[in-house]
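Work package 3, deliverable 3.1, input record:
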Amino acid sequence: MPEVIPLEIHDMTVAYRRRPVLWDVDLTVPESTLTGIVGPNGAGKSTLIKAALGLLPLSSGWVKFWGESYEKARQRIGYVPQRESVDWDFPVTALDVVMMGRYGRLGWIKRPGYEDRRAALKALERIGMAEYGARQISNLSGGQQQRVFLARALVQEAQIYFMDEPFAGVDASTEKAIIELLEELRREGHTVLVVHHDLNTIREYFDRLILLNMRVIASGSTTEVFTTENMRKTYGGRLTILDSLAHTMAGQARGGK
Amino acid sequence: MSGVWEQTLRLLSLSDANVRYVLAGMMLLGLAGGVLGSFTLLRKRALIGDALAHAALPGIGIAFIVTGTKTIGVLLAGAYAAGVLGVLSLMAIRRYSRVKEDSALAIVLTVFFGVGIVILTYIQKTGKASQSGLDKFLFGQSASLIGGEVLLISAAAVILVTASILLYKEFKLLCFDPGYSSAIGFSAAWLDIILMALAVGAVVIGLQAVGVVLMAALLIIPPVTARLWTNRFGVMIVTAGALGAISGALGSYLSFLAPKMPSGPLTVLAATTLFTVSLFIAPERGLISRMLQHRSNRRRTELENSLRAAAEWLEINHRSLDTAFSPAQ
């Protein structure tokens, strides 16, 4: 039987300077799903993504994509880092940044050509940025910069996407454009994992959840996992968040019926 | 004054073989410095060139003591090895201690330079006639370059620039987003090592003509100047290379006019002049352009405020623009 699970993590522990920040992570993420990675600050959400992508060394455990190592599966994996992780005063245009998404399939030394340029322009158009290709990236708003990052991941033409807080600090129209894109990707059969902060939109956005606080507190379908009890375990004693959350959830539950 | 004129003619006519050599060599090392310096600047490691240059000094001294020759190839090989050792020390400090990057740079720069000065002084004191001359590596002496040396420098510069052209795409990715670079299969750690290896090369070939103390300027000033003129990565690198070459040419020209003067400071002064002019007149990022931009923004705001005030007045007094100037009803 062929291996069809896009992402499987087993017994993964990750440490920074010998201080473990993620313990014993066991996860399976099925195909064609939109998964939210949720947890308080310092819970290891970005670390989970970076470790899965081979950017951080593992203290133990393994990560497999369709049963293969990251190196073998790399061409099928797309990545959107945090927007704040780069200097937006860098001398490149939006189109230049999107083109970088093609570098992986080009390999060393070979330059991007006509096809790559066309793919990049198409990706910009898909995310509503067609007119901004020639714009220097420092002249883009936060939301537009985030869209450029998404377009860069799109041209990777991957099957699984990891996105680190794509909704952080973006305007409402960008948020809407992004969630529409994510749902479209899932419908097309892609698997998408998204680090997310806004607890109010979880139920609406994601069909699966990974609740994280240095360990996996719970993972599975949103309806099963997104309970007050699980959120209390994830966020610990921060009652103010939880009370308002319980309120919201109650409201959503009533609204849903 | 006729001396200046004669030397200028001698330089411009390129009739003198030595002049041709020195000019070509200085321009090529300016070019290599500008190109590699652009990458290190955009990698936010502008000062690494300075640490590398200073770190190279003990290598020159040790190479001389071990081999007893002043052959430029041997001395520069020693300088290269010491420069690489400097980079490795930097990486080791960063990796195994909690010392911050700027402190690590300062430690490597001063320690290596100190050792270098001690070794050079030792060579000077043990005094054979052939040993004097190593001190020109401190501030550079382009006029003393001879054919074979220039050929070596030029060949190295061509290799460095060619490598930069080949790895242009990879370096662009590394400088902008090293994390993403690693994620899509271009290990940032390896790219950094390659970039550093090339940067050491760019520094080392300038040691004889520009000197240990000031070589870093050729890796920093032309790229910073180029950044003022453009928002495009490729254009910036080409411009920085061109500015470096121009600075090198001006430096060797000034050095011909004043052969007793060390050429390092002259080259740096040339580069700095280009920078200062650019700082004022560059479009968009230049001081004058920004001042005008600021002023026009202020005018526009003032105009908008006046119009808003007028509109409010009309509204409060229940008038339209047509009746605004008629006497009060």
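Chain A has eleven helices and nine strands.
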